[in-house]
Amino acid sequence: MYRCVFLKRCHVVEPLKFENGKPCIPVLPAGERSLPSFLTTPQLGNIVSSKNDTRLRIFSGTANPSLSQEIACYMGLELGKINIKRFADGEIYVQLQESVRGCDVYLVQPTCPPANENLMELLIMIDACRRASAKNITAVIPYFGYARADRKVQLFAQSVVLFQTQGRESIAAKLVANLITEAGANRVLACDLHSGQSMGYFDIPVDHVYGQPVVLDYLASKRICSDDLVVVSPDVGGVARARAFAKKLSDAPLAIVDKRRHGHNVAEVMNLIGDVKGKVAVMVDDMIDTAGTISKGAALLHQEGAREVYACTTHAVFSPPAIERLSSGLFQEVIITNTIPVLEKNYFPQLTILSVANLLGETIWRVHDDCSVSIIFPLATKSK
């Protein structure tokens, strides 16, 4: 598990604790002016020890082995033995080094950069488990690459008030869903998909979990005065996500950065909807790629009088020049999770890494035991 060895360059925080499978959501009691911290409880050791894990296996791909190890530690299990290597020509070889016949198998592999290699590795892992007679195969995908390619791009015709789609364009998210299904997966466990419609692309069950409770737990520990807080959506498309986030932060006010995108990975900030003057602005998004959207939004917030700006996201893709933009002084803190591994060379003082291991581990237990997963997110499901 990550500890405090990198504190001077990056802050890595202990994973969220659960009590009976439920994280505590911060709601400001009447008369209080600061956000309460989450209840922290010991790990569910008594529950883990009572579970029958003889048919449960967890295997890790090469994309994020540290997260896989944390998940296994939370569940009190050993990672399964697997041999993954690449031949000189780049082809991927996978061999399971223990029996999975009749087992409930979970393969932890985010399809983060390099997306194509990690996706192909996941497909071959699934195929290996299927050919080894695994009873159930669940692809645990903390970060689902190609999720942004979930529709054809909409173009606005300036001569008339009309939106039309761009022709001859693929919908790669559907293709990837088909590949995972055809490879032999029986179920997918994903974290913070870019859009909910991606779940509909799969012809198998999808358990969609949210990194939101982990981020909320950390923000609550900072004891920010609720009167000073405003939640900001960096674009119009993220308003629903930001509104749900604001409700859990004592129903904080909402602001929206209105921008127009002129191409892939290029964003232009236009104006701000809402009041942030003298406030602590918390920008919420599902991912940060090149950080163009969120950094331009932060600059606008400072221009409008925001006292401090925090960036919160589940997936830290961090394509260049994201690190330069995020460490330029615009942000008081950049809060991410470890769904995608961040290289130590990319750490910077404002960066805080939270772990989703306990969240995913608890979800795996519930899926394995045929228990409810939505109960982990009671307020998240009600707010939609």
Automatic annotation (TrEMBL):
EC annotation from Swiss-Prot or TrEMBL: 2.7.6.1
Signal peptide, first to last residue: none
UniProt xrefs under CDD domains: PRTases_typeI
Cellular component terms (Gene Ontology): cytoplasm; ribose phosphate diphosphokinase complex
Pfam families registered for this protein in UniProt: Pribosyl_synth (PF14572), Pribosyltran_N (PF13793)
Family: Belongs to the ribose-phosphate pyrophosphokinase family.
Name assigned to this protein: ribose-phosphate diphosphokinase
Organism: Linum tenue
